Amino acid sequence: MNFKDKKILVTGGKGFLGTHLVHQLRKNEQVLEKNIFIAKHKDYDLREQSDIKKLLKDTSPEIIIHLAAKVGGIGYNQNNPATLFYDNLLMGVQLIEQARLNDIEKFVAVGTICAYPKFTKVPFNEEDLWNGYPEETNAPYGLAKKMMLVQSQAYRQQYGFNSIYLLPVNLYGPNDNFDLNNSHVIPALIRKFTEAKENNLDEVILWGTGNASREFLYVEDCANAIIKATQQYNKSNPINLGSGLEIRIKTLANKINNLIGFKGNIIWDTTKPDGQPRRCLDISKAEKEFGFKAQTNLNEGLKKTIEWYTSQAQ
Asked: For labelling alongside 125, which of 167, 202, 241, 252 has CA 20 to 30 A away?
């Protein structure tokens, strides 16, 4: 798909991933600044059909990239399962339906790695997506986002509607959410170690055992992957977006701590859940289908993220 003269609507364009995606679109020589639209939550509540209709009437896009989501870490998921299920399900279902009714040329649905079953053989292959139930603490969120895949495939089959479904792994980078009430693991670790160092604390308490593993993708790499997929991929089979690097949370914590320089003790609160035991993706299809391969290694990405957070805190 050529972006020339295409109007592109980005939901969640003011969010973490959204700001980086919009920045990359603005750098794209095919895309005109005036043709990029951001659906701001204060103007359009995507849970409301009337707001979605108004949004599409106001912007008349040819392409929709749907990033908007209600998200949070393990604790937030435990405390708000119904909200996470309802809000994410409603946004996705109604937006895809209205996109179809408005003859949108292409719909890019960005899902979540939480859609995978709790016990999936590593690396996660897209074909394993339905082989079990997601990890309990984030299942409502993961299943709500996963319904966009079902809808995408059904709409292509019945209506010939061109939509794709992407599965990014855990993201991190500048402009992430560092609120400890609902942040994900990397920003939470960066904030905890930074504040502990600044306040000369003796210890930092972290959730779980530290034995669970995760894979992380630098946010700018993810933004580039979404743009590549939007331009080049036109199938409803889901596609993983990741770096291919698996790391234990305990190792990650030590790596971040070494970069920040906190000298106290690290205490693991084993009464708290680890979440999914392991998480690492088979990323071969993204490279095969639209030539995506992550460019930012974890050490480089962590340094950039820590530098950004430190600059904001000053």
From this structure: 252
